[in-house]
């Protein structure tokens, strides 16, 4: 594979990342080609030593997503990290995606229940004293506050569980990459 083919496939695989990140990563691999050519190797030998640009782009996207999650800790960064990890391998998608979708579905269901409970608590708090509930208006106020406080507590726990889940996925991706790296690098060193 020629240098331009390798770089075009790498850039295509990195699309969606910030332009500065793509340019930095591309510059690193351009430097690999420069060093290889200076050492007397052909473009095909250097590209073979670097490996498959599509796989390399998936690994670089996963690493960028994990770094973004570690610095930003917001839903967008979490989604980027999860999807970058899922992009690492088809087998992982077949195993991890059904489990992850079940867990995310359960978390979403709990989120909906938390929101509904909070709204119901607000309704009981606001309307309860005016409709003569059992126990009197003070009981309605306390019941409304109790529902809202309970929903807030469960929402806080849900946030913690979601952060743990994203951190677990990032840990899995790092483990996955560490396990694959030794298998990939000897091939690259043997060709170099």
Automatic annotation (TrEMBL):
Keyword list, A-Z: Membrane, Transmembrane, Transmembrane helix
Residue ranges of the TM segments: 77-100, 107-132, 138-171
Statement: the UniProt record of this protein carries the keyword Transmembrane: yes
Pfam families found in the cross-reference section: HAAS
Highest taxon listed in the record's lineage: Bacteria
Protein's recorded name: DUF1700 domain-containing protein
């Amino acid at each position: 594979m020629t240098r331009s083919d390798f770089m075009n496939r790498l850039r295509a695989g990195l699309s969606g990342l910030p332009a500065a990140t793509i340019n930095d990563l591309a510059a690193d691999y351009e430097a690999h080609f420069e060093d290889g050519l200076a050492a007397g190797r052909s473009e095909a030998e250097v590209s073979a030593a670097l490996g498959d640009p599509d796989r390399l782009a998936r690994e670089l996207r996963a690493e960028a997503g994990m770094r973004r999650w570690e610095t930003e800790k917001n839903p967008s960064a979490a989604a980027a990290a999860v999807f970058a990890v899922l992009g690492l391998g088809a087998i992982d998608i077949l195993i991890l995606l059904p489990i992850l979708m079940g867990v995310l579905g359960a978390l979403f269901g709990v989120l909906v229940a938390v929101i509904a409970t909070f709204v119901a608590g607000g309704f009981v708090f606001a309307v309860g004293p005016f409709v003569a509930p059992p126990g009197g208006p003070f009981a309605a106020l306390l019941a409304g506050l109790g529902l809202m406080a309970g929903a807030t507590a469960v929402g806080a726990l849900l946030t913690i569980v979601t952060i743990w889940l994203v951190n677990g996925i990032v840990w899995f991706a790092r483990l996955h990459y560490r396990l694959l790296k030794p298998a990939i690098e000897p091939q690259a060193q043997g060709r170099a």
